[in-house]
Amino acid sequence: xxxxxxxxxxxxxxxxxxxxxxxxxxxxxxxxxxxxxxxxxxxxxxxxxxxxxxxxxxxxxxxxxxxxxxxxxxxxxxxxxxxxxxxxxxxxxxxxxxxxxxxxxxxxxxxxxxxxxxxxxxxxxxxxxxxxxxxxxxxxxxxxxxxxxxxxxxxxxxxxxxxxxxxxxxxxxxxxxxxxxxxxxxxxxxxxxxxxxxxxxxxxxxxxxxxxxxxxxxxxxxxxxxxxxxxxxxxxxxxxxxxxxxxxxxxxxxxxxxxxxxxxxxxxxxxxxxxxxxxxxxxxxxxxxxxxxxxxxxxxxxxxxxxxxxxxxxxxxxxxxxxxxxxxxxxxxxxxxxxxxxxxxxxxxxxxxxxxxxxxxxxxxxxxxxxxxxxxxxxxxxxxxxxxxxxxxxxxxxxxxxxxxxxxxxxxxxxxxxxxxxxxxxxxxxxxxxxxxxxxxxx
Length: 443
Description:
By secondary structure, the chain is of the alpha/beta class. It has three domains: 4-106, Gyrase A, domain 2 (2-Layer Sandwich); 124-206 and 377-427, Up-down Bundle (Four Helix Bundle (Hemerythrin (Met), subunit A)), CATH 1.20.120; 214-364, 3-Layer(aba) Sandwich (Rossmann fold). It is built from 15 helices and 13 strands. It has a seven-stranded mixed sheet with strand order 3-4-5-6-2-1-7. It has a six-stranded mixed sheet with strand order 9-10-8-11-12-13, sandwiched between helices. Helix 6 (151-175) runs antiparallel to helix 14 (405-423). The longest helix is centred in the middle third of the chain and has 25 residues, at 151-175. The radius of gyration is 30 Å and the shape is flat. It starts with a strand and ends in a 7-residue tail after the last helix.
């Protein structure tokens, strides 16, 4: 397999840049360009940094080199990395020199793909690594690190192994009926499939929480004009992002801002004040607000604590009857007229009691007491595969009631194969390429 090279750090100026090679010729190419006193291919020690000079066209770069001997490297191949001064042009010149001396340019994710091919990671590990790189909250990092630990993959492999053992016995009974009992083999298949169904169903159930960990909790802020929605949004995110005026109908579109609270992302959506209006633009904003209510996980219904409920307030409350709602009584810095059970009293103008809203949000979303010792499915591809596996199991269980052993064998193999799309044991080359193409260059 060709030796590949790529810059593994973001382009731009910085303290250091790393240029990486992987492949059988990595060490040979490295020693044709890197010089350090008393160092050669025979006495170099793996995993040790060496200070020396990298030969460019008509200049040298003083840098560090480290060698990872196969199979004890990220890719499972010989790997050499150069830690050079962090200039974009310099890193590009080092890479260009490697390419001119026998390396091929690595494609997106090609280092990680080789790690998969060489048994250093599963497909799940690769996808978890992508999610870890793209994580934007503590909860995402914790959930992803558990996936990287291999717990999810091990659970799926364990189910696959149990199915495979039963299939072996079943196929023996098909090929050599005199040596095995077909009835017992099918009975065992049914028991394993029922057990697999329960385990997979439990994993699927975690996706509701997993989606909130990955994408955040969508919270629509609604209320009639001038109850202080925009002021409240500014308090919730700690920035002046929404326009605040005394003029009704100022917010005419949906404004979305994300904050991280106790490791969980909360997506606040400030909507146009909902009221009867003849203004064409404002009417469009109001319709978008109603759509946001439908698509949100939780609704913050903001009411004016200094005034009684009117017909517009009552219409708003009726719009949220089928949603998880937090009633927020704003303007408590004025004389309080309105009282509601379980409502949160705040003052956006004085930034008072704002965190009480966030606490209630993560409580209603059931993410305030996450147990990161268990797996949460945060990857949409994984959840679709698990749902398909459940369908395959139902078909296999159904045919196991009435059909012959060869049909049961065929349908049960489909379950094993579907689960293999997570572990990579039965995945097609095109999907493998698709997964690793999501990585950046040099990964």
